[in-house]
Amino acid sequence: xxxxxxxxxxxxxxxxxxxxxxxxxxxxxxxxxxxxxxxxxxxxxxxxxxxxxxxxxxxxxxxxxxxxxxxxxxxxxxxxxxxxxxxxxxxxxxxxxxxxxxxxxxxxxxxxxxxxxxxxxxxxxxxxxxxxxxxxxxxxxxxxxxxxxxxxxxxxxxxxxxxxxxxxxxxxxxxxxxxxxxxxxxxxxxxxxxxxxxxxxxxxxxxxxxxxxxxxxx
Length: 218
Ligand SMILES: Nc1ncnc2c1ncn2[C@@H]1O[C@H](COP(=O)(O)OP(=O)(O)O)[C@@H](O)[C@H]1O
Ligand SMILES: [Mg+2]
Known about the structure:
By secondary structure, the chain is α/β, with parallel strands linked by helices. Helices cover 38% and strands 26% of the residues.
């Protein structure tokens, strides 16, 4: 589904990515591990077209990504990709279900009633049926992170990119989240690339790669 070839990225004289080849198949969960500063977030951002590589190519569903075409990039992000970050970045003024609807509202083309029921379906699926009208500051960390997952799922992305999604959660909530990722893969064939420090999550995934010194070393 997604293929990266020879990805290089420098920040000034710092060579963060020195030529990375990588691919993800449909229905696959790939975890990326490695020390802090190894370039994991930089790489994930490039996979999500949130950052531009200095060299190398990215293809999505067999089509080369044109990093110079900003409108094509934003449709790719909105229609094909879902993002989950360590901090959920929910909007505090809006309820859980409203937050979940935001990417679909940006995409447009669906009535608000339909969006709301879709959001409610995802929130229920994630065990948040009693939290739909809560605003983020009335949710626990684990609940807020599940709302962020519902939001990522809303446009039925082909691939979800997650950067330390359990980094801010306790052990119990982290384990819940791991089970959820596996369930999403099994129920929907959802693909993931997940950057994590959590070796238990890595062990549950289909494949784990380690980044070090600008390369994938295993
Ligand atoms: N926007 C930026 N400008 C300059 N340096 C950056 C920027 N983003 C990341 N870096 C540097 O690139 C290296 C890799 O960062 P990052 O991809 O965040 O690593 P990781 O996610 O593995 O901890 C670090 O040394 C970091 O300081
Ligand atoms: Mg990082």
